[in-house]
Amino acid sequence: MYDEPQIYELAFGFRDFKAEVEFLAECARRHGTYGGEGEGEARLTSLLELGCGPAWHSVEAATRGVQCVALDANASMRAFVSDKLAGMGGNAPKTIRVVDGDMRKIALEPMTKPANGFDVATMLLGTAAHLLTYDDAVSCLKSVRDNLRVGGLFVVELEHPWDLFSGDIANAVGDAWDRTDEENGVKVYVEWGRDGDAFDIETQVYERTVSFSLVENTDADVVDASIKVIKSVEEVVACKIFTQPEFNALAATAGLTCVASYGDMDHRMTLDDENAHNMVLVYRRDE
Question: 41 and 151 in contact (C-beta within 8 Å)?
């Protein structure tokens, strides 16, 4: 699915990325300790986005003058972001770099990152689920710590515990939605997990079936024989499910301390709020 960035962006581009960058900036103010002794002195001036995909957060942050590095291992995604920036012409932000890289072992050129390290690093939209082993997770977390400034933050978005403990994941309960691109006259039907997908209770790895069906825009609720299908993509994606205590322990091993948790990319949303649908954890490098 990552080889189809245009479809991917349509399928998952429904979030309010401006508000989410505001959330990251507020995290810096609330939890960052690199700005001085006074409350609220830390500012978001640099951002490292791991597994950036279409780089929604980096592009938005860069338009605000934040120095951004968007890292992804998929060449199609990187090319898509570069083309998107080129298409912005003179309005393209000048403070973003799109780089090839493995989030398990971040190796940035010296001139690519701030001298003292990044203010904030992120791993959002389920990217952490691609760390399929504890070794992968610890390697990633240590690498993130090495690229953060002292007092800097790592913001991670994970599956909400309710999805695991309610049985939705263990029982392989899938989700589905559609999104329309009116300008180009297309619609994508998304299947995110399929009833009956395999979940390994020991490794907590979920073999999630993901499918995209890009079709001519219609008012139909499902794809049927009368609808022209432009492209279909289906893939089984291995996703590791982490609990907060697990991820906190792994982060501590890497030298990061959990300083906050939220139920969404919103400081008003607590983890135990009935409307919480993701688990957002904030870690800090204290030394």
Answer: no
Domains of the chain from N-terminus onward: 5-162+241-284 (3.40.50.150), 170-240 (no CATH)
**Beta carbons within 10 angstroms of residue 114's beta carbon:** 15
Round to whole Å and give the CA distance between 6 and 207.
24
Q: Is 278 helix (H, G, I), strand (E, B) or coil?
A: strand
Separation CA 139–CA 43 (nearest Å): 27
Q: Where are the alpha helices (DSSP H) in the chain?
A: 5-12, 17-31, 56-62, 75-87, 134-147, 161-165, 244-253
Task: Give rounded-to-5 percent helix, strand, coil for the chain.
Answer: 30, 30, 40
DSSP labels, 141-182: HHHHHHHEEEEEEEEEEEE-HHHHHTSTTTTT--EEEEEEET
Q: Which of 160, 162, 238 lies closest to 197 in space, CA to CA? A: 238
Q: Is-above-0.90 flag for pTM?
A: yes
Helix, strand, or coil (residue 257): strand
For 80, other C-beta atoms within 10 Å of its C-beta total: 22
pLDDT tens-digit profile of 28-50? 999 999 986 555 679 999 999 99
Residue 89 DSSP SS3: helix
**Chain CA centroid to CA 32, Å:** 20
Q: Which residues pair with 122 in a beta bridge?
A: 49, 155
| CB contact at 8 A, 117 and 106 | no
Length of the chain: 287
Q: d(Cα 227, Cα 220) in Å, to the nearest integer?
A: 9
Looking at residue 127, its amino acid is T
Residues 247-287 have pLDDT tens digits of 999 999 999 999 999 999 999 999 999 999 899 999 999 99
Residue 22, classed as helix, strand or coil, is: helix
What one-letter code names the amino acid at 194?
Answer: R
